[in-house]
């Protein structure tokens, strides 16, 4: 499982990662649109730099959850989690329901709102590059090694090592270690990163398990409901037959 | 005019608007025709058309269950309209969904690409299957009229019980699964609505909505066709609905108590008010009113209670579907007129088909009498034009068509041209530049900009002769027009030419062939270059070029000037970093100008969660914005 570790204390906000990403995927120039959001992500910006007070910078990108809500939500399986850990998108399967955008706890997937043939767009962890043994364009471009690429376990170890070595420098927490079952894009920081989740604290329970309970009940509900209805119908039908049996007298009584 | 004709004319008019708007939606895309955004990806079309629509059509499975499973034969008279409503309702849902989907032509992908983990996948399949079931349930009704179809009809009637059971099971599944859709968003949906038992709540409320919808529909069509209402039956339906309402209230509040969210109810947020309004009109008030037998059979209340409850539950669907989601990124979503028009016209279309079916086939015990089929009635003349519109039937068709076409025409005319032509680009007009030693260039006023050493540029490029290098065209009789005079938007193409002004008699008064060559297509490329007439338009040695009358936006034109010139200078001065973005875009800040005292536009001091420090410069400490590029080297 590959991962990215971003250390916000090292980020200088140069946006080289953003530019590298745009160049790799030939993304068009961004202009302010009605549907753009404040965080700088859009269908043409798969990663962005959020500037916080006192010159702090936070890079925002897809978190590539270990148990992604978007993958579980997509009705046609257009989003897929690969063995390397990248959550990738197949535009040929997509029907454009935007359920993935609703389901994502980080609000990452963005839409080609201006296109008559729109697709969902987000960071795909440079899936082509990492399968070729290269590292993602963004981590390669970073001049200060603020964002680095590697194996998830190793990077987790590295994060904890940094937290241990210079505890004064960081908040004692690795963002993405456990939230919603863990993510593959990890953060360590000296400022609170709740802005990445719109200020909402996320629990540790993976989101797909929440629907799983309801979805597992589906076959039982179907069979149970059918059987109940058939049973009721049979019982009532039989009772009516028994009532009718004594002869035509009763029916006439009823009619009166 | 008879009320049914007025009503149909209104429906056709709505459909006409819908035709215009629907066309625009598919040509221009969702962004410019709706108010949806990256923060609010689902809106009215999902909340009302899909979630509300499916719930509104629940009457079908409830009444088939009542009549064919529980054998309550007295409801037999209203089972046919209920099945028809369900059938049309689900078709309306599918049509509404086609507008909302980004790639509607791929909707069949659900059949071949499976993701059984997704509740939406399950809803899609159930709706597809249930539509088939409804078609088979409904088919025998129109088939009565065609003796050739008798065999098929009898076969389907034999299959009725299995079909009814399948319909009930499928409805149970997808009515509840619409609630399951939101289980994956515990952090989005407001705690007053989010619950692990959302599917159950959705199912119970769908039952009440189905019952209420059947009552309302019966009431409304009776009024429309001036036929007798089944007051007795409706009273019985309402009395049954009362118990379901009660269950709904108990489950809803029980769930809140169980999850420990009752504390939220006392708050003063708008969501809390919304919750109380919703639950009050959905269930609380109806349950109280329906407990009073007098009210239950009173015709007025038979109007009011279903309407109230229907509105309440549809509101519940809209709330869960997006309205009460905890906002991502401070965007307020209100459906655009386009969205409302499409929603309304989908309903109008379904209503028109319903009315046609009711008039054509035996949906009710008594088919409504059409005043126009009265043979003694004579054709009328149109009161305005005094021409004959033909027989009453033909005349009606003409009038409906007219309403539709007129509405479509008006709809096309009213389509917001500004939004469509700007392709959703936010307007951010350019502002007047000021000739200080160091200028803060921030055309879109977002606090991000660049400190431009204006004085230094003048010194380096030949003092007063340098102006024309960068400052270009002026409006007639003007010495220094603002950028924004032509570049009315930061990013959009600007019409720097003004074709109308050149062509009109009150302007330049030119003929077509004064500028366009006779044999060629008349467009900007084949027209005479501007400088052929306006020799003084662009000064000698200027870096500005005007190829045709369309110029790029302000930001791009600024960049093109700066980066182009800097690239040339980078070679001659051997300063390779000169054309790099970071050479100018060093940091975000607003500047207090040394010349003007206080910068007149100290905007951007605080924008959203980003705070830009205000940096002040005085003459002893000149801003570090020289053309050396050293700052970039240092920072790297």
TrEMBL record, chain A:
<feature type="binding site">
    <location>
        <position position="104"/>
    </location>
    <ligand>
        <name>[4Fe-4S] cluster 3</name>
    </ligand>
</feature>
<keyword id="KW-0411">Iron-sulfur</keyword>
<feature type="domain" description="4Fe-4S ferredoxin-type">
    <location>
        <begin position="53"/>
        <end position="84"/>
    </location>
</feature>
<feature type="binding site">
    <location>
        <position position="65"/>
    </location>
    <ligand>
        <name>[4Fe-4S] cluster 3</name>
    </ligand>
</feature>
<feature type="binding site">
    <location>
        <position position="123"/>
    </location>
    <ligand>
        <name>[4Fe-4S] cluster 2</name>
    </ligand>
</feature>
<keyword id="KW-0472">Membrane</keyword>
<feature type="binding site">
    <location>
        <position position="138"/>
    </location>
    <ligand>
        <name>[4Fe-4S] cluster 2</name>
    </ligand>
</feature>
<keyword id="KW-0812">Transmembrane</keyword>
<feature type="domain" description="4Fe-4S ferredoxin-type">
    <location>
        <begin position="85"/>
        <end position="114"/>
    </location>
</feature>
<dbReference type="InterPro" id="IPR017896">
    <property type="entry name" value="4Fe4S_Fe-S-bd"/>
</dbReference>
<dbReference type="Pfam" id="PF13247">
    <property type="entry name" value="Fer4_11"/>
</dbReference>
<feature type="binding site">
    <location>
        <position position="126"/>
    </location>
    <ligand>
        <name>[4Fe-4S] cluster 2</name>
    </ligand>
</feature>
<feature type="binding site">
    <location>
        <position position="70"/>
    </location>
    <ligand>
        <name>[4Fe-4S] cluster 3</name>
    </ligand>
</feature>
<feature type="domain" description="4Fe-4S ferredoxin-type">
    <location>
        <begin position="2"/>
        <end position="30"/>
    </location>
</feature>
<dbReference type="GO" id="GO:0015944">
    <property type="term" value="P:formate oxidation"/>
</dbReference>
<feature type="binding site">
    <location>
        <position position="11"/>
    </location>
    <ligand>
        <name>[4Fe-4S] cluster 1</name>
    </ligand>
</feature>
<feature type="transmembrane region" description="Helical">
    <location>
        <begin position="217"/>
        <end position="236"/>
    </location>
</feature>
<feature type="binding site">
    <location>
        <position position="17"/>
    </location>
    <ligand>
        <name>[4Fe-4S] cluster 1</name>
    </ligand>
</feature>
<feature type="binding site">
    <location>
        <position position="62"/>
    </location>
    <ligand>
        <name>[4Fe-4S] cluster 3</name>
    </ligand>
</feature>
<feature type="binding site">
    <location>
        <position position="21"/>
    </location>
    <ligand>
        <name>[4Fe-4S] cluster 2</name>
    </ligand>
</feature>
<keyword id="KW-0677">Repeat</keyword>
<feature type="binding site">
    <location>
        <position position="74"/>
    </location>
    <ligand>
        <name>[4Fe-4S] cluster 4</name>
    </ligand>
</feature>
Automatic annotation (TrEMBL), chain B:
<keyword id="KW-0349">Heme</keyword>
<feature type="transmembrane region" description="Helical">
    <location>
        <begin position="300"/>
        <end position="320"/>
    </location>
</feature>
<dbReference type="InterPro" id="IPR005614">
    <property type="entry name" value="NrfD-like"/>
</dbReference>
<dbReference type="GO" id="GO:0020037">
    <property type="term" value="F:heme binding"/>
</dbReference>
<feature type="transmembrane region" description="Helical">
    <location>
        <begin position="273"/>
        <end position="293"/>
    </location>
</feature>
<comment type="similarity">
    <text>Belongs to the NrfD family.</text>
</comment>
<keyword id="KW-0472">Membrane</keyword>
<feature type="transmembrane region" description="Helical">
    <location>
        <begin position="400"/>
        <end position="417"/>
    </location>
</feature>
<feature type="transmembrane region" description="Helical">
    <location>
        <begin position="9"/>
        <end position="30"/>
    </location>
</feature>
<feature type="domain" description="Class III cytochrome C">
    <location>
        <begin position="496"/>
        <end position="585"/>
    </location>
</feature>
<keyword id="KW-0812">Transmembrane</keyword>
<feature type="transmembrane region" description="Helical">
    <location>
        <begin position="119"/>
        <end position="140"/>
    </location>
</feature>
<dbReference type="GO" id="GO:0009055">
    <property type="term" value="F:electron transfer activity"/>
</dbReference>
<dbReference type="GO" id="GO:0046872">
    <property type="term" value="F:metal ion binding"/>
</dbReference>
<protein>
    <submittedName>
        <fullName>Ni/Fe-hydrogenase cytochrome b subunit</fullName>
    </submittedName>
</protein>
<keyword id="KW-0408">Iron</keyword>
<keyword id="KW-0249">Electron transport</keyword>
<keyword id="KW-0479">Metal-binding</keyword>
<dbReference type="GO" id="GO:0009061">
    <property type="term" value="P:anaerobic respiration"/>
</dbReference>
<feature type="transmembrane region" description="Helical">
    <location>
        <begin position="193"/>
        <end position="212"/>
    </location>
</feature>
<dbReference type="InterPro" id="IPR020942">
    <property type="entry name" value="Cyt_c_III_dom"/>
</dbReference>
<keyword id="KW-1003">Cell membrane</keyword>
